[in-house]
Design goal:
The protein is an alpha/beta fold. The chain contains 10 helices and 12 strands. The protein has one domain: 3-Layer(aba) Sandwich (Alkaline Phosphatase, subunit A), CATH 3.40.720. The strands form 3 sheets. It has an 8-stranded mixed beta sheet with strand order 6-5-7-2-8-9-3-10, with helices on both faces. It is elongated. Bound molecules: zinc ion (ZN).
Amino acid sequence: MRPTVVFSGATLGALSLLTVAAHAQSARRASDRLRRRARYERTLDATTDRRGAPLSLPRAAQPVPLSEAPATRTNAARPYDHVVLLSIDGLRPDAIALSDAPNLERLSQRGLSATEARTITLSYTLPSHASMLAGVDAPTHGLVHNDFTPRHGFSRAPTALYFAHDAGLATAMFVSKPKFRHLAIPGSVDVFERPSYQCPAVARRAASYIANVGAGLTFVHLSEPDSAGHDRGWMTVAYLRAIAAADVCLGALLTAIEARRDRDRFLLIVTSDHGGHGRTHGSTREVDRRIPWIAWGSAVRPGPHTEPVSVMDSAATALAALGLPLPPELEGRPVRAALSRATSGARAAP
Ligand SMILES: [Zn+2]
């Protein structure tokens, strides 16, 4: 037989105290949850500090002097002799103005700067870079994974480097992550180097190559903003500092180009593979898909470029800049405003 439970008045009082304590605990948990959520929301788009002031850094770095107005010495058949395609991993376009990045800022103010540039929907490093270099979307190049996995082989779509090499031009890749081996299709690059994960070594090697190279296509990849984004969050002070560091490395490439007598025959494209939010990327959200796309060269029509640009257009623009035919399977299109200034004063190459 079960005993009949009888609560005394004292027990009932203790029980109601317990109920009150339980309510207080669950309220505390709920408010902790809200606080955590608010903290997370701040990291999602942390363009302001805790007091609401815009995040930015004191100006310290000096920009590399750019030739004031590069002489237009284009040739309809080959607008440029050399294209340097620089990808700054995980660089959000809206972070440039908040960072101490004088080179990026001046290139975007004085060169062509696309305001509507986006990466592919699969906004991860390897798929996006494959699209940048091959000019096709992920289902076509087939690199839908995101780390160095030898059994996945090379991009199924030929890269712009492949076509340039095939045409007898010099090609090189200076990268900071091993996964780029998937894009170095055999016979497509004369030089493939991964000097370091850190950009100073990558930029130093690339700059010394650029100083003496002939006509061709050079791809350079810097990691810094992406790794700070994953470690500390996109748009945090650490992320903005990483952009400043990448900007110094960009300066080394600019110095190498500007030191050349034929600098007006160089086209520099600066872009990225994806943006990011919180400590991640890879979604179809605008913060992940928006990228910078900046072009600097003698035939570039300077100013904001408001037409949509895809990361896939980088390959097409590089090929067109070198006067190479565009393979029909390319999904990207050349950004023509980077190839023909289309104003009076343009003169043909001597
Ligand atoms: Zn990336």
